[in-house]
Amino acid sequence: MPIVRFSMTVVGAGLVATAIGGCAIVGWLAPERATSAAPDRAAAKGAARDRPAAERVTFDSLDCDPATGVPLRITGLLLRPANSGGSRRPAVVALHGCGGMYRTSPSRRDDLSSRHRAMAELLTGEGYIVLFPDSFRPRGQDEICTVENRLRTITQAQRRLDAQGALAYLQARSDVAPERVVSLGWSHGGSTVLAALNARASAVTAWTKGDSPPPYFRAGVAFYPGCVESLRGRGGYAIAAPLTIFVGGADDWTAPRPCIELAEGLAAAGEPVTITVYPDTYHGFDGPPSQGRLRLDVPNGVNPGKGVTVATNPAARDDAYARLRAFLRAQLDGPVNAGGGRDAPP
Q: Is 10 buried (19+), middle (13-18) or exposed (0-12) by CB count in 10 A?
């Protein structure tokens, strides 16, 4: 499949942080977890392969609950690789898009959607722990796709604080290598990845400065994000860790051109960024075949009021997932010492 790529040699970020932002100061605290949920059901009758069990967890966002002024309590689903034993493992914070992270069927509203379940299986199969934080239900919403951008009350800045809370939660776990956590997201969640890696944002610089701060996100992965806010933000944009972006060249929901311009500018500045553009490919190209449709209920997009296209592209999905595996292996794999730090090179 022909693609367009702007890239540089990926370099280790080596950035560390004090977890200060929003409502809370986050230290090395033992995580508070809810009781384990029962294993998820198979998505289709007769499915033969084993699936990782999902554990429902809770943790504090660095965002405030406006009603109480205390940190907003976030729920999430944690999935671990089979036979992980007692070793520390790399982890991924997976950030849902504007449709939320769950299925829409009332009888399965607490199950991960097909796209998210497929990614969970891919990542746990690679040996990574995966955390899906839910930014919507704790704020009283199931989805924001059908809400005009100017009327949305859940922002990328708020979700960045959720992602940072998820990072702090994972770093407090005894089974996670705290300096090997990546952020990954789709669409609105992909935009959140960009926001979370913006080295010029105060919420990021507050984390990444200090004498002995804990590590920050090791890298970021964004699938078809909206890039306008990062491209045109008043404070400018630079990345705090290596970033890779996957977009559809025909996307009429989150336009690819701003992402291409963002990547070009970062690459020209010597930043470790890669973008892959799939021609004739639409939004949600890694989703299930059943999603392919014109969505007239979405008021945003390249042509407001005319709907947006969501369509799977198996060839683009397979290529993106292969590149994703390679990117994560380059960023996350390798020995980890008993204290969670990197072993010295030979």
A: middle
Using CB atoms within 10 Å of the CB of residue 267, give its burial: 0 to 12 exposed, 13 to 18 middle, 19+ buried.
middle
Q: Which is more confidently placed, 28 or 184? A: 184
Structural domain count, the chain: 1
- Residue 136: give the domain boundaries: 4-38+50-332
How many other C-beta atoms can be found within 10 angstroms of the C-beta atom of residue 69?
8
**What is d(CA 169, CA 61) in angstroms, rounded to the nearest whole number?**
9
Phi, psi of 105 (to 5 degrees): -65, 130
CA angle 191, 217, 26 (to 5 degrees): 105
What CATH number is given to the structural domain containing 256?
A: 3.40.50.1820
What is the number of residues in the chain? 346
Helix 114-125 vs helix 314-332: angle between axes, to the nearest 10 degrees?
40
Check if the beta carbon of residue 81 is closer than 8 Å to that of residue 89.
yes
Helical (H) or strand (E) element with 308: strand 308-310
Is 344 a domain residue? no
Nearest partner of 215 among 58, 332, 115, 48, judged by Cα: 332
Let me know: does 61 contact 159? Beta carbons within 8 Å.
no
Q: pLDDT per residue over 88-125, tens digit each?
A: 999 999 999 999 999 887 878 888 999 999 999 999 99
Q: What is the pTM of this model?
A: 0.84
Query: To which H or E segment does residue 119 belong?
Result: helix 114-125
